Amino acid sequence: MAEVETKEREAKGGTGLRRPKRRTGVRQDMTPMVDIAFLLLIFFMVTTVFRTPQAMEVNLPPDESVEVPESNVMTVYVDRNSQLSYRMGTGPLLPIQRKDLRRQFQDQARLNPDLIILVKVDRKAKYEDMVNMMDELEFANMERFSLVELTPQEAEELMGMQ
Amino acid sequence: MTAMVDVAFLLLIFFMSTTQFKPPEQVSVTLPESGSEIKVPATGLIVLTVNKQGEVFIGDESGATAAVPKGELNQAILNMRTRRPLAHIIVKGDRAADFGAISDVMDALQETETNRFNLMTEARADRGD
To answer: Which of A9, A124, B7, B32 could bond A128 through an S-S bridge, CB–CB 3.0 to 4.6 Å?
Structure first.
């Protein structure tokens, strides 16, 4: 590859006192350069970030309260241990797993198109729980829901249930 | 071999010129995952960072942040919004932060009539099904 063709120099003067030296092709070892090139290439490929962070859109309503009949409310509780439970209207409190949540939302919304979802999260629960919850709601096409903190009494009540 | 070296250098130049190094972050945050597909804009942001301990920082997209003492959040948000009225508000919370801390930030946003904001998350590959 790296042969440099060197034209043999013509002997000057043409006296022919010295025979021009026969030059062999110069061989340049390119391996270290290629090594460095690949090293840098790998470095930049690895450090390049293609994934930019995502955003979840939140639109808060103006600060005003709305009255809703209790029978239209589905309340989902998230306690401080990330355990989920729900209650339909004033019905009994039932535990639920996260993976069943979406189906539950969809089923209940089909039964009652006026369903309002109220998500009550313990202050000591993790932010991740809240995001997961919002995610599940979005997957179930529940764009409108209400997010509130658990009152200390409710939190105690929830912990007492287990 | 010359061809391979050519390609290698081409790629090298491509990656060198396209790489944007992340601005050094003063507050390290592990973002939660979500299936949301909205991209965070690169400029014009007001970033409210909440770290694992629930401390709140306010800053912009460059990564420069200032800690906000408790009780001064409303004022800090208002100041920032007056300075940059067109900026998007992004809440960047650590996934292990208490919900209470985030809830306080959201309350502050509601009180300052910032009714539209985004929560910064990491992309989740699956939709959980």
So the answer is: B32
User: Could you tell me the residue range of the domain that residue B35 belongs to?
Assistant: 23-123
Query: How many angstroms away from the CA of A80 is the closest CA of chain B?
Result: 9
Check: CB of residue B115 under 8 Å from CB of residue A61.
yes
pLDDT digits (tens, 9 = 90+) for B55-99: 888 888 777 778 888 888 888 888 888 888 888 888 888 988 888
B8 assigned to some structural domain? no
Task: Say if the Cβ atoms of B118 and A127 lie within 8 Å.
Answer: no
Residue B46, token pair as written in the block: 């007001």
Distance CA A130, CA A120 (A): 9
In terms of residues, how long is chain A?
162
**What are the residue ranges of helices labelled H in A4-97?**
31-47
Residue B61 belongs to some domain of the structure: yes
Question: Going from the N-terminus, what domains does chain A have, and what CATH number goes with each?
Answer: 3-47 (no CATH), 70-161 (3.30.420.270)
What residues pair up with B120 in beta bridges, in sequence order?
Answer: A55
**Which residue in the set B11, B99, B124 is minimally distant from A130, CB to CB?**
B99
Report yes or no: A74 and A108 within 8 Å, Cβ to Cβ: yes
Q: Is residue B110 part of a domain?
A: yes
**Nearest beta carbon to residue B38 from set A34, A57, A123:** A57
Q: What's the structural domain count of chain B?
A: 1
Look at A123 and B98 and tell me if their CB atoms are within 8 Å: yes
Q: Which two tokens stand for residue A109?
A: 């919304």
Distance CA A102, CA B127 (A): 11
Percent share of chain A, pLDDT over 70: 82
Q: Is A119 exposed, middle or buried (0-12, 13-18, 19+ CB in 10 A)?
A: buried
CATH of the domain at B109: 3.30.420.270
ipTM (interface predicted TM): 0.73
